[in-house]
Specification:
The chain has helices spanning 2-14, 18-29, 34-43, 48-80, 123-138, 153-159, 165-169, 173-183, 190-197; strands spanning 87-90, 103-105, 108-113, 144-149, 202-205. With 219 residues, it is α/β, with parallel strands linked by helices. β2 (103-105) and β3 (108-113) form a beta hairpin.
Amino acid sequence: MELEKAAKKVKSFEGNNLAGTLSDIEIRFRGANRVRSEQLRKKFHLGSGFISSALELKRAAAQINVMIHAVGILLALPHILDDDEHIEYLSLGAGNTGRQFDLETDKRVAEFKFINWQGGPEVIRQNSLFKDFYSLVEYDSPKMRCLYVLGKKIPLRFFSGNRTLKSVLSRNNKLEREFFAKYGDKFKVVCEYYAFHKDKVQIIDVLNILPEMSYGEKT
């Protein structure tokens, strides 16, 4: 019930279009002094109650993302496992679980990226996607390696692009040190590393088996 109240407050502020609402507020605040700013704040019902509601929804959304990741994997399992394949472990939670991959069986290791790709820069998402691809490539095992994504078009565009590896790895010091210690200057951009290793990892579109996971965005 508290979440419902919080959602109603946020929706009331958002109106039919958040961008339009914010544009209107920007215009109304133009030239305002301290007193007028306070009057306008009250007019738009922007108090501590509103920000608390927005933060409550943000906390809930973070948990929703974890649940989507976990349930998405569980829904996919009956579609991707062979009849004689057995799960060795699952890692469904967020953060460092002590397990290297989301799934390991007696036949495969797998990572799942349920990202709602928009097609813009999305550098943080790209960094995370590359980390998972790299981990699968470098895993010392004869097992099949699978990277499951929501739509292959945008991930493959990234892997075929010329973003520098220094940029992709710059926010993960441990991974950056490991990568350059192993490869030095052999690869300078993402597409070079991907072209060299792409046959090691199957990139699989989850939407082919779970179309209900589509966000309705470009895939």
